[in-house]
Amino acid sequence: MNPYFKRLMWPLAVLVALIVVNIAVTGFDFIIPSVHDGRLGGAFVNILRRSAPLLLIALGMTLVIATKGIDLSVGAVYAIGAAIGAQYILDRDQSSLVVVFTAIGLALLVAAVIGAWNGTMVAYFGVQPIVATLILMIAGRGIAQLITGGQIPSVSDTTPFVELGRGAVATVPVPIIIGIAVFAALVLLTRTTALGMLLESVGGNPEASRLAGIRSKGITVLVYLVCGFCAGLAGLMGAANLGSADANNGGLWIELDAILAVVIGGTALIGGRFFLLGTTIGVAIIGTLEVTIINVGLSSQWQFTAKAIVVFVVAMLQSPEFRAWILKPFRPRRAPDAPAEPATEKALAK
Amino acid sequence: MLKKALAGIGAGALLLGAAACGSGDDSSGDDSGSGDGLVVGFAQVGAESAWRTANSDSVQASAEADDRIADLQFVDAQQDQEKQIEAVRNFITQRVDVIVLAPVVETGWTDILGEAEQAGIPVILADRGIEQADEDLYVTRLGSDFVEEGRKAGQWTVETFADDDSTRILELEGTVGSAPANDRKTGFYEILDSEGLSYDLVDSQSGDFTAEGGKSVMETFISTHGLDDIDLLYAHNDEMGLGAIQAIEEAGKVPGEDIQIIIVDGSKAGFEAAVDGKVNYIVECNPVFGDQLMDLVVDVAGGEEFDKFIAVEEGVYGEADFEAELPNRQF
Predict the structure, then answer these.
(1) What is the pLDDT of residue A74?
(2) Three state DSSP letters for chain A
(3) Domain residue ranges in chain A
């Protein structure tokens, strides 16, 4: 079997299992999209739409992790992006397209600069990634609060800015389109050029890569820049969806969900090989899980526990040792599909 | 920041002025009450939310306007208990008349409040409480009664839906395990059950007190349960309620008409939505208790005894009140 597909098989199985649970509880309406007000709706489409900001951040995070790094500042950059976008528009003519695009451009520029700053600290000053990005994780929300003056700026419901989070093109919600576009761009960039291979080699062994003639420092700065850009864009989408920017709570702990999605998707934190499609599936699992908890009627107190159980199941399924051990009593050479799925559901039902 | 620092220096200068007045010639006092007015030390939590900022502003403004108060020493502890302990110790050294403390955390106050007791300075807690064991070390606590807020929401529900067969309710809870979330829930169902309202709690989930949480949970509620049979949405705070309103509108329903909505807090944004007809009832969680606090300070300085808890005066607002009340909102 194709090793790439093999990596994706287990997360995909868990996602399918979650969807099956939801269909069992709420019927096929869960998966079948409906059109409302010229926009695709329905439970599953809504999950994808709401997950788009997390997807962008997780994709950026995947590239950073591929270079053996990590970016803890994405939640704060999300808040900064949201704050700049909402505040800039609020202070000006809200219905003007020029204002809206300037706001978006400004927010993305600042987010990208912050990302590049993180990358520079890691690549050129040799600061450990977790420390370099921790600085902005802590300070970033303060910066966002300075931008908003400690208030929650709310833009008008009629400004074109909100389309970024609520609108639709040919009935497809804008956040989903942006998610697909960024995913496609990153896949093209890393799989049709040598960049993906260079990334993996930097993550595998930066010194050897440098000696082999790869400009590893420039590549490191680039991935943090992309990650910051994605976080800023995610913040703009979040702010557009709500029509407001909350510097304290916007994108809070999203860095942890993003790292979780990357890991669920099969990319190892030690760097090297990375799986953008796996990350996408990981994001879908996290989004579906939150809805599943509500649909099966578990109380909010269960949220973290249920998340932990699912992550545990995915991690175990991805471990060849665990699979070998659990399948020992059965016929060893059969495809392990059948026994694994009920186990997942049982763990969830608990 | 700079503004605050300047205000602090200003307050300090005022205090020196007042002290000078007290020790020497009373004739030079430009403030009519400064000669025998009280000096109050207030150790505030910080400026972590719009609610808190409104709270600080209210206390400072009330102290300023009150003739019985010569000076309010305001310290912003930036959510740090160490800073608060230091502030209280400073108040003791300066021999203020009354100390007001909005404790960052519940524990660790025994020593410093013991020092205040020995110095004979009464302590009033504002908003938040401290652990039971230290109950003897303060006179009283002035704060919001979250259970009562829940009861008020419940009372309106009982009155509004008294004639219905079965009221179908959705609830957006606050952060799991937080006191306001637990208490607002408890008070609400206490009244519904005791008044014998026939109701059906369709679903209840945490929206984490944020607009984002409120909107996404509401979207899921809508796709799972639909909105056609839902009578009431009870949101534990404004932010979640405002998020849910967007979700309802995007689903093509009219909030406030197709589904009745109660929110707790009463921020400016909440009242604006209410004026637009999107909210039916607002239960206030009032940060503007400066005047009440100053009355209490004067009474406590006069040696009066109080219960260990005094509820802040908090209003409720129905459809007839929204427009008139909106200009009064301070956060």
Answers:
(1) 97
(2) CCHHHHHHHHHHHHHHHHHHHHHHHHCHHHCCCEEECCEEECHHHHHHHHHHHHHHHHHHHHHHHHCCCCCCCHHHHHHHHHHHHHHHHHCCCCCCHHHHHHHHHHHHHHHHHHHHHHHHHHHCCCCCHHHHHHHHHHHHHHHHHHHHCCCCCECCCCCHHHHHHHCEECCEEHHHHHHHHHHHHHHHHHHCCCHHHHHHHHHHCHHHHHHCCCCHHHHHHHHHHHHHHHHHHHHHHHHHHHCECCCCCCCCCHHHHHHHHHHHCCCCCCCCCCCHHHHHHHHHHHHHHHHHHHHCCCCHHHHHHHHHHHHHHHHHHHCHHHHHHHHCCCCCCCCCHHHHHHHHHHHHHC
(3) 1-32+275-350, 53-171+191-270
Confirm or reject contact between A26 and chain B (CB < 8 A): yes
Q: Specify the pTM.
A: 0.82
pLDDT tens readout for residues B39-52: 999 999 877 677 88
pLDDT of B167 strictly over 70: yes
Share of chain B above pLDDT 90, in %: 71
CATH 3.40.50.2300 domain residues, chain B: 2-143+287-313, 146-285
Residue % of chain A over a pLDDT of 70: 94
Q: Does A238 contact B212 at a Cβ distance shorter than 8 Å? A: yes
Question: Which residues of chain B neighbour A152 with C-beta distances below 8 Å?
Answer: 50, 239, 269
Class of domain B146-285: alpha beta
Which of A300, A303, A305, A307 would you mutate first to test chain B, the one with the most B CBs within 10 A? A300
Choice between B331 and B211, residue whose per-residue pLDDT is larger: B211
Q: Is B115 on the interface with A (CB under 8 A)?
A: no
Query: How many Å lie between the alpha carbon of A298 and the closest alpha carbon of chain B?
Result: 9
Task: For domain B2-143+287-313, say whether CATH 3.40.1080.10 is its number.
Answer: no
ipTM of the complex: 0.84
pLDDT tens digits for range A221-238: 999 999 999 999 999 999
Asked if B135 reaches chain A (Cβ–Cβ under 8 Å), the answer is: no
